[in-house]
């Protein structure tokens, strides 16, 4: 999917991302019809193999930006290029269908894409394996914990083999220990798949632990006010959170966030 500033398809730009940039926003603006100016001239570029977290005060337009990137919302200004159709989206709510088992929920997206039965079963079982839900295929959502529901939601998105993976605060409602475990598992999946990730969170520690870069947004209308490269290598262990360099970086980002609020 590649669009111009007016939203029209730009066929000539199909191969526009030779450097692996899968998402590029330039001066993206969002004015809602009710007069809310949510996003103000945001520049954001994310390459394959980059995991970028967005942090910012509540209501600064983080979810709006993700929705624009996914094509769920039309920006009112600026330009955007998304150079893949393989987009995964994980919402804050796991959005599982209560009458379907874990396996049937995870098969839903590929089923909607008319992927053949054997292939979608294989993809679903692979994804269930990847998120650590093996053995729970026949359970219904009501039989799962919050963390397990989120794993199922993640697995469903993984079946699409996303090249651009968008996460809207997926672990916000999950207890801290489970959240840390899920962070480790998401990092492992990212290392294996090397998609381009954009992750919205209110937790600076989560952003630093997961990301290659953390982008700080101002209060509404959201502008980018800071961008911090995360220097740690991909093999991050939970103990990293106690590291002095980790604390220094979260401190700097926190300061930027306080100035931006
Ligand atoms: N469809 C809409 N119509 C009108 N206003 C909207 C719409 N969607 C979001 N907004 C407004 O746009 C602003 C940004 O909302 P958004 O959900 O993007 O913020 P956020 O940074 O993700 O917030 P939070 O961190 O609390 O989840 C808010 O003031 C919100 O009320």
From TrEMBL:
Q: Record's superkingdom?
A: Bacteria
Keywords of the record, alphabetical order, are: ATP-binding, Nucleotide-binding, Transport
| Domain ABC transporter: from-to ranges | 23-244
Provide a Gene Ontology MF annotation, just one: ATP hydrolysis activity
What is the name of this protein?
NitT/TauT family transport system ATP-binding protein
Origin organism is Actinocorallia herbida
Taxonomic lineage per UniProt?
A: Bacteria, Bacillati, Actinomycetota, Actinomycetes, Streptosporangiales
């Amino acid at each position: 999917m590649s669009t111009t500033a007016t939203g029209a398809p730009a066929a000539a730009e199909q191969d526009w991302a030779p450097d692996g940039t899968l998402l590029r926003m330039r001066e993206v603006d969002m004015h809602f019809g009710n007069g809310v100016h949510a996003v103000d001239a945001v520049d954001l570029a994310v390459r394959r193999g980059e995991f970028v977290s967005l942090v910012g005060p509540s209501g600064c337009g983080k979810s709006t930006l993700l929705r624009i990137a996914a094509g769920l919302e039309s920006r009112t200004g600026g330009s955007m290029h998304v150079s893949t159709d393989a987009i995964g989206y994980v919402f804050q709510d796991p959005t599982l269908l209560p009458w379907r088992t874990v396996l049937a929920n995870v098969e839903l997206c590929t089923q909607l894409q008319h992927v053949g039965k054997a292939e979608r079963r294989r993809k679903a079982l692979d994804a269930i394996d990847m998120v650590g839900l093996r053995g729970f295929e026949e359970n219904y959502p009501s039989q799962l914990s919050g963390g397990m529901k989120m794993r199922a939601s993640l697995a469903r998105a993984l079946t699409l083999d996303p090249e651009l993976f968008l996460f809207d605060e997926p672990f916000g409602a999950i207890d801290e220990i489970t959240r840390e475990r899920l962070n480790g598992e998401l990092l492992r999946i990212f290392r294996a798949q090397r998609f381009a990730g954009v992750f919205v969170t209110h937790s600076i520690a989560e952003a630093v632990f997961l990301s290659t870069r953390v982008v700080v947004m101002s209060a509404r209308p959201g502008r980018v006010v800071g961008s911090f490269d995360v220097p740690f290598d991909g093999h991050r262990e939970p103990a990293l959170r106690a590291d002095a360099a980790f604390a220094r970086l979260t401190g700097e980002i926190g300061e930027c966030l306080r100035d931006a609020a």
